[in-house]
Each structure stands twice: as structure tokens, then as C-alpha cells.
Amino acid sequence: MNFIQTRGIDTNRAKTVTFSQAILSPIASFGGLYVPEKLPELGEEFLNKHLNSSYKELASDMLARFEIDIDKEVIDKALSLYDKFDDRTNPVPVVKVKENLYVSELYHGPTRAFKDMALQPFGVVLSSIAQRLNENYLILAATSGDTGPAALETFKNRANVKVACLYPDGGTSDVQRLQMVTEDAANLKVIGINGVFDDAQNALKRLLASQSFKEALEKKETKLSAANSVNFGRIIFQIIYHIHSYLELVRQDAITMGEKVYLNVPSGNFGNALGGYYAWKMGVPVEKIIISSNENNVLTRLIRDGKYDLRECAVVSTTSPAMDILKSSNVERVLFDLFGAKRTKELMNDLEEKNVYELSSDELNELRKYFDADFCTGIEGKKYIKQIFEKYNYLMDPHTATCIKSYETCCKAEIKTIAYSTAEWTKFSPVIANALTGELDTKDMDALQSISDVANLKIPAMIQELFTKPTVQKTVIEKEQIEEEILKFL
Ligand SMILES: *Cc1c(COP(=O)(O)O)cnc(C)c1O
Fold it and tell me: Is 266 in the pocket of ligand 1 (CB under 6 A)?
């Protein structure tokens, strides 16, 4: 299978590229993205065939249908990383919370957030392509907390790949910072920046576009790449768990095969939701995908009113920071799928030039056939965390909690809902402790203990250990020094 481009083709570029090429340089003509030429059609036959398959068997067959240019041995090795999840027979448990509401838990990997679902296997795939080409890659990552730990964990000690990870010093939770600064491997460099997440993100964008930086890297025989969520190498692994979650509901006798469900997705950059959209297109019976947001509700407004409007709009910091995003990159792939390359280019140009684009009413109707949306404030989210815990004994993190609001406003009772849980309680413990007990300004260490007491949950060993592990990544610098620091590391 080859990959085509969301904004049409620049004459300097090939018409189609392979999966490997789309992974190594994910930005297509005119700043667009790569998408598969045609999605494999799986249909009910595939679902029936895999009703009793393991996660890995399902994944392996689905990936085979994409016919990508990656050897089967590499795919098998990549998928074997799911064996390190909490339950090696099932990396993604689907739990019934109450009548009609099920939670698909995507956080049982090594860094306790859903980024592991895609980044774990992606690390193996990228490293194998680099080895095959006999090239060395520098992966740049900027993180507000979840991507950094997951990227470091997956590339740790992998051949032909080095990672430089930028984070805002003081701008992440203690657990997230410790997950990064305790990572000890020669191919990893973690850099704290005196500034906020935007400073890290802007520095990354500047470096990715800088000709002089590229030349400096060439002298060190290194190429530049990024592991952000526009990379199709991540998206492909995010289709699998939507199919798996549907089959889990059939296995649990919650639905019969063919019955439609809602997918309710806490969204930021839209990778998770896009995986659900592709799963639907490939044959999973879905009623609608519900997009849940926090106070940064640009996606809610797009899906309700047809306008992607960033004018007079600034990111606000919320209790669900992994969703504090204004430019939700993967929406572009849905626009392309529904409206084609010419229109997508037009809309994305409007966004870049005028900070706004507007769909026609026909286009909005088309979009709304697939999506509905709502947003949840931090205060509402904390109310839901407490309520769901007290009534149903189920503890969720603040990102997952945004789904409860939209579950109430967008989902009809007679259809089952699969809400996706993107982080374990351990990653956002101060907010959860506050929701459960009212305690304010607790540090992670104390918040973890108080949640553990109230909810009678054990703090996982890999979180507990962080507080006694030595800090090996000690660099904290001004943003002007980043380039120099990275070149020194190489
Ligand atoms: C990354 C992340 C999200 C957003 O996922 P997208 O695929 O970017 O929409 C939501 N919750 C958590 C905890 C995350 O880490």
C-alpha cells in the first residue's frame, strides 16, 4: 500500500510514497500529511474471524491487510512489546462502569498513559527502517508531559536512533518529570527549559525547519525526524485498539456482532479519534464518534458550528493538560477523506493565513454524520471523577472524565458507549486527590498516597520507584541554548 497527500502534490514530489518514507519524513506537499491510498476493507468477516483472537493476533492480521513495506519479523517484534503491559494476554482491558457505559483502558503500558499504545511498537519500526537504510536519526520531541516519557521509553537503547526531548522545567507533574530525568541511556538526552510548553514546542519547530541545524547534523551523519502524532507510523497502531474494544464488548455479551456503538474519545491532536474513524471506515459498526474536549474547545465548536476559529483564541491551562491544544493536526486527515485534497488545501490555507476556516452547511452535515462533540470544564471534570468513583467505584483521570460530560449530552441511552481512558490515576494525582478529598496543592508523592488510601488502590511499582531513582538527566537551560546543547550531545 502506498501513501498519498492531503493537500495535493507539489511538482517536486513523488505522487505516492511507501509507508517507510511517510514515517521518516511525515510532512507532505504544501505542509500536508500522508494518508493511505485506500483503507483495507475488513468487514464483519474479519470481526468474526478475530472474535477469540489475542490482541497481537488481531493486530498482526490488521497490519498485514495494510500491506506496508515492513517485514513480518519486525512487525512481530514491535507487537511483542504489548507483552510488557500489565496483563500480557490483554494489553487493553475494557471495563463496564455502569449500564451502557464501558471504559477501554489504554494506559497499561510502561509510562501509564495511552501514548505507549502507539509509541511502543513505533520505536521498533522506526529503528528497523533506520538500520535497513544504514542511516542515523535524531528524533526531536517537545512534551508537556506524556509524549516525552513514552518516546524516551520506546527509543531507549535502540540502534541508529537518538532522542532529544525538551520539556518545560516546572511545567509538568512530578511523576512526568521523574519519568524523563531518571531515563538512563547513552542515546537519550532530556533537556529542561526555563519557560513554558510553548517555548519548548516553538524551539522544536524552529529546529525542524532550520537549514543550518540540518547542515550541522549532516556533518555528524545524522538525519532529523520527529515522533509527533501526525506520523502515520503512530496512527496505524491506534486503529487496532478500537477494533479490539468493539470485539471485547461482543465477548462480554454487552452487544451482538453488528450492533452499533458510540466511541467517546478525549481529544487533543485527534490521533486517537482518527484511529476510531479509520476503524469505522474499515468495518467496525459505529453510531458516532464523540469528541470530548476541555476548556480548549475548538473541536467542539468545529463539530457543532462548522467553524475552526482560532481568532482571539489562546491556549488555557487546564486540569487535563494533554488536551491543551488549539491546532489539532489530525483533523486534516478527516477533511481530506470527506472533502478531497483541493478543498483540504483551501481550508488549511485559510487556517494558516486567517486563523479560521469555515465549512459549508453541506460539509458540516457530512462531518456531523460521523462526529458529535462537547467539552467539559475542570470543575465539572472533578465532579465527575468523584461521582463516578462514589457511585460505581471506578476511578478515572481528568482526561477520561471529559468523556462523562459528552456521554450525558451526546449519547442516547439505548446504544452502548466505549469511552477511552488515556491515563492512569497515577499521572495526574494532585487533581484526582483534590476531586476526591478536597485537598489542595498536594505534591504527587502525597497525592498518590492519599488516593491509594481513599480508593484502596496500590501505587504501581514503576511509579513508586521513580521517587528513589537517581536523576541522571540534569540539564536545565535557557531556550536560546537548545541547539548548542543538542549538538554537544551528538
Ligand atoms: C495525548 C493525550 C490525549 C490526546 O490524544 P490525541 O490523540 O492527541 O487526541 C488525551 N489524553 C492523554 C492523557 C494524552 O496523553
Answer: yes
